[in-house]
Amino acid sequence: MIRIAALNASSAVEDDPEGTLKSHKSQTKEAQEAEAFALYHQALDLQKHDLFEESAKAYHELLETHLLREAVASGDEREGLKHPGLMLKYSTYKNLAQLAAQRDNIETAMEFYLEAVLLDSTDVNLWYKIGHVALRLTRLPLARHAFEEGLACNPDHWPCLDNLITVLYTLSDYTTCLYFICKALEKDNSYSKGLVIKEKIFEEQPCLRKDSLRMFLKGDLPVCDVPVSASETQTILEEALELRRKRQALMARKNEPDLKLAQPISLFTWKSLGESLMATYLHLTTCEPPRPSLGKQIDLLEYQDLDQHLESQANVAPVSVLHPSPVSSNPLVPLTEPLLTYTPLTPNFPSLTVLESVNSAGEEDARGIT
């Protein structure tokens, strides 16, 4: 019986090789998932005990596992993170970002947060964290996008709404800022930041008070605003103005020296100037990188004093003038330019006397005929 059973089992395996392969793959996948989840919990435990280096190393090892490397997002947000590998990868990127932020490595934290949001863009908390990190980096357009996406996920997420109002005022997008202030006051009519920034916008651009009146009346907001203390008003405005100053400082151009002409201007003629500019352009567009900007000024201070520059040119390359000797037997005879004759192109019409004689002859012939 045992021998027959063994033969039957062997024949069954040979009769269904595809089923055996599927079973083997299923066992392999389950083993990969078990290994990946075990490594994830190990990294999470290290993170809870503030072992940042060990925890980050374990997370990076987890990203290199076969399960996570083959986990690719489908691009359809409705499917979500159904694949176990996608769930682990998403959580791993968020935890790595949190570790980097705790160590003030803000750039790295932003990179990991952006990797996570590529896998799942429906998490309002993730968008808020991206916006918060973007504020620390003074990347205000990215912060605006993150807070707007967070409100698209959850319109009632107050931290996204509160920070978005500050960012919009800092970016001077007053119309959109008033729109979200109206949304915030509908939820809380004593919202101090909204009241302060609204009046500040009306102070800077008075025309917006009339243009936005219908929007605020439509929201059924109270006519009389709740008073806000001077200290709180100063704090709210200073937060936004400080962000604006930081952004302006980052966008300020560095003081760089002006460009030099690659070919000096030899003569004060349009031709010489054009040749010098063409030579300079050719040099700037073919030199080794990093190449300077073509929008920079060209230093022409050495050509400011025209007389001095001409004198220096004369000293460098004097020009000799030959005069004829008075005792020379062959004096120089000046050449005279040929005179150009002008022939008018106006046709010769008959004179008035000729016309009168012709007319008189015609009249006599007519009298003779009659």
TrEMBL record:
<dbReference type="InterPro" id="IPR019734">
    <property type="entry name" value="TPR_rpt"/>
</dbReference>
<feature type="region of interest" description="Disordered">
    <location>
        <begin position="7"/>
        <end position="28"/>
    </location>
</feature>
<feature type="repeat" description="TPR">
    <location>
        <begin position="90"/>
        <end position="123"/>
    </location>
</feature>
<dbReference type="GO" id="GO:0005634">
    <property type="term" value="C:nucleus"/>
</dbReference>
<keyword id="KW-0802">TPR repeat</keyword>
<keyword id="KW-0539">Nucleus</keyword>
<dbReference type="GO" id="GO:0031491">
    <property type="term" value="F:nucleosome binding"/>
</dbReference>
<dbReference type="GO" id="GO:0006325">
    <property type="term" value="P:chromatin organization"/>
</dbReference>
<dbReference type="InterPro" id="IPR033053">
    <property type="entry name" value="Hir3/CABIN1"/>
</dbReference>
<feature type="repeat" description="TPR">
    <location>
        <begin position="124"/>
        <end position="157"/>
    </location>
</feature>
<protein>
    <submittedName>
        <fullName>Calcineurin-binding protein cabin-1-like isoform X1</fullName>
    </submittedName>
</protein>
<dbReference type="InterPro" id="IPR011990">
    <property type="entry name" value="TPR-like_helical_dom_sf"/>
</dbReference>
